[in-house]
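$ ./design --mode recover --in tokens.txt
reading tokens...
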């Protein structure tokens, strides 16, 4: 800070000017440091606010998708056509097919075949 003073001659005015210059440079460096810290803090605060807003938006989108999937599952349980489900929920046909396969909803029913012979029932009507 005062390293230039050792090079100055013993003139008191020169020493005073060098000292004032060093103090000015030191104050300038301190002000710049403070401004940087303040700028970083403001940047962090803005970043946090943006992150919160983005998180809320993503949460809403995920909630909308979950609601659409719940509605689609109910419609699949009633064996409604995929195209109609897609129109109502805004899910793609591929998403609906995946949802149906994952949840085994609305599978085509095959005739029941058992190894055991079926019992025959007779209906008796009384007159």
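writing sequence...
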């Amino acid at each position: 800070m005062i390293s230039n003073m050792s090079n100055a001659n013993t003139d008191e005015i020169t020493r005073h000017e060098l000292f004032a210059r060093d103090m000015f440079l030191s104050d300038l460096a301190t002000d710049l440091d403070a401004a940087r810290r303040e700028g970083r803090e403001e940047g962090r605060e803005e970043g946090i606010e943006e992150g919160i807003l983005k998180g809320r938006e993503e949460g809403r989108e995920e909630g909308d998708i979950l609601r659409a999937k719940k509605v689609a599952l109910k419609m699949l349980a009633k064996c409604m056509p995929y195209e109609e489900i897609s129109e109502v929920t805004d899910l793609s046909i591929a998403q609906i097919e995946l949802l149906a396969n994952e949840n085994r909803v609305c599978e085509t029913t095959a005739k029941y075949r058992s190894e055991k012979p079926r019992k025959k029932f007779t209906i008796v009507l009384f007159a």
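exit 0
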